[in-house]
Amino acid sequence: MKRTTSIARRHKTALGAALACVAVLGTVATATGAQAATASEHTASVARTNSTPYVMNHIGEEHADKGKAERSPEALVLSEFTSAGNLDWKEWGTKKAVATGEITGMWCLETCQDKPLKGTLTLSDPKTVNGKKVFSSFTLKLAGGNGAYDSEDLKGKQHLATT
After folding, report:
1. Which of 148, 76, 58 is nearest to 107 (CA)?
2. pTM for this structure?
C-alpha cells in the first residue's frame, strides 16, 4: 500500500509540475505575442520600399566595428559619444527618418547618465555603401533646447561600414 501511495504521489507531483510549466509557457507566449504585435503595428506605420535606407547600428559588442543595417531600431548608437533609446519612429522615408526618444552621451554624463534627455533624432543624407542605402548623418534636437551642449555633440556622421 505504501508503494502505491508513493507512486500516486509522484504522479501527482509530476502532473502538477507539468501544469505549472504549461502555465509559465503560456504566460511567456502571451507576453511575447503582445510584444510582437506591438512591434509589427509600429513597423507597419512606417512605410518602406526597396529604396528605403537603413541605419548602421553599432549597438552591442558584436556590431561595434561594422554595425548592423536596421530600420526603425528601438535603440541606436549614433557615434562613439552619443546613443539614443526608447525610439518612437514617426517617419522613415527615402530622404530622412525621424524619431523621438531618450538621448545619452559622454558629453552629458553628469546630467543624463541616470535620467536620459528627451529629444528628436533625425537621420538624413542617404548614401549607397556596399550595395546598401544607409543614412549617413544625424542631428539631435533636445526637448527644452540644447542648452550648454555643443552642437558638435548633437549632429554628426554615421559610421557607414556594412555587414
Report:
1. 148
2. 0.65
